[in-house]
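Team,

Forwarding the record for the chain on the shared tracking sheet. I've put the sequence and predicted structure together so nobody has to dig through attachments.
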Amino acid sequence: MLQKPKGTYDIYGDRALEQLYFKKLVEALMDKYNAKYFETPIFESSELFHRGVGETTDIVSKETYDFKDRGDRNLTLRPEGTAGIVRCFIENKLYAENLPLKAWYLGPMFRYERPQAGRYREFYQFGFEAFGSADPMMDAEVIGIACNLFKILGLKGVSVNINTLGDKESRENYRQALLDYFKPYLNDLCEDCQRRYEKNPLRILDCKVDGDKDIMKSAPKMTDYLNEDSKEHFEKVQEYLEAMGIDYKVNSNIVRGLDYYTHTVFEVVADIEGFGAQNVLAGGGRYDHLVENIGGPSVPGVGFAVGLERLFLALQAEKIDIREIVCPDVYIFSAADEQKSYVLSVANDLRMSGFNVEIDYNSRNFKSNFKQADKTNVKYIIIIGEEEVNSKILTVKNNETKEEYKVKLDELIEFLDEKLGEEDEN
């Protein structure tokens, strides 16, 4: 029997619903930040990831799916989302538009790594990128977006770790300090780190083999090599995070797994019982030179990404059903088939007024309709019978409190606006 490839999984049933509900939730959140949805090809020129992600990263050196097409072109299945968004930004000259530009994406990525809980060879990422501002305020807002996402989802055991990699001058000073420090220990490092020593010694700090060795723990810290501009940038980021009420910790061990980061880097981690060691839910940072490195003008950027597989495991561990967070505002059903056209008319008016509406398409009886409303976690139920059609006074039921209201048809939108607004405030 034919089976799915190792490291992949099928999306159907409850998992498919979770993914659809997550996208709805993200769309609503992104609208609040005036971010625009982007889609880029699943495969790109291999050169894009070599120049963008970095040849010394594990992703490019070990984990990419590379192939030649029939035109002998070197192509790669995208291992992450940022490089493709940056290529799109450059190719379509979006830098000439009004900046900053905020972009978000949601789609499959591909890395050849050992499958384990929450880690697959085909996996889904939600990502956010902001181009056109070098202000540390943007760093803080991006971290805030990630935190707000998890807050909306109801995750309690999450925290933010931040670090700075400084600007070019600071990184060069730090690079030299690492070269001097690790030189006597070269033979004690793994083969990959010996290779990284020459190309990018900062990557040694991100080693999965030698990470717990004493030589790593005693290595120089980036914060000791920051120039005044880099120090000020990082201090401002912390000031803005505090202004937003975001709890964070400075963790000098965070360097992230991609070569393009400058200044701020961060991770959102989960401290959830039974969640396991792979506890990073989101990660990102600033990349002020990535656009230029890929062939565009000098435009600063900052962003982050969330792996959906790890996120859904965290939600499961916390017993959070995402379908209870993103649910219809209104469920409408009729007492008989004769009122179906009226149901459609009311539903259409509500949808055009911005409400999320579900209706009964299957001519269920009263008991089955109330069960269906419970399954969809709907907030209000509208029941339409012959009397409602004739009087134009509808029966509206709060599905949580079971309280019923008689509402005139021409006052329905105002009524729902008020009631749903009260619930949002609470």
